[in-house]
Amino acid sequence: MSAGFGFSETSGEELFANVCQGCHMSDGRGAAGAGAYPSLVADRNLQAGGYPVAVVVNGQRGMPAFGAMISDDQVAAVVNYLRTHFDNSYQDAVSAEDVKLVRR
């Protein structure tokens, strides 16, 4: 588990399992109830790597901004995981350098 204000997980799979799946569910299909959590399955919004990077760093609508709690390497790892799992096959990986550009 993560300790303190930052996340200790380093792989995209670990970050998804310990941070993201609480809302997006373990299968990435999202949920509805107290809020609406979008599905990440075959998600065309993940096609351009910069979009999910910006959402993870800055938040969007009901999703909190994780930028202060997660490193550039961690953002890249979880975004690359999402873009290559859950029926997504976007192989052009984002890098920590790409994340730095979004943080500016």
List the SSEs and their pairings.
Elements: H1 12-24, E1 31-32, E2 36-37, H2 50-58, H3 72-83, H4 96-103
Antiparallel strand pairs: 1-2
Helix pairs in contact: 1-3, 2-4, 3-4
What does this entry look like structurally?
Strand 1 (31-32) and strand 2 form a beta hairpin. This protein has 4 helices and 2 strands. By secondary structure, the protein is mainly alpha-helical. The chain is 40% helix and 4% strand. The protein starts with 11 loop residues before the first helix and ends with a helix. It is globular.
Beta fraction: under 5%
Mean pLDDT: 93
SSE pattern: HEEHHH
Strand arrangement, major sheet: 1-2
The protein's oligomeric status is: single chain
End-to-end separation: 29 Å
What overall form do the CA principal axes indicate? globular
- Count of DSSP H/I helices: 4
β-strand number = 2
Main pleated sheet: 2 strands, antiparallel
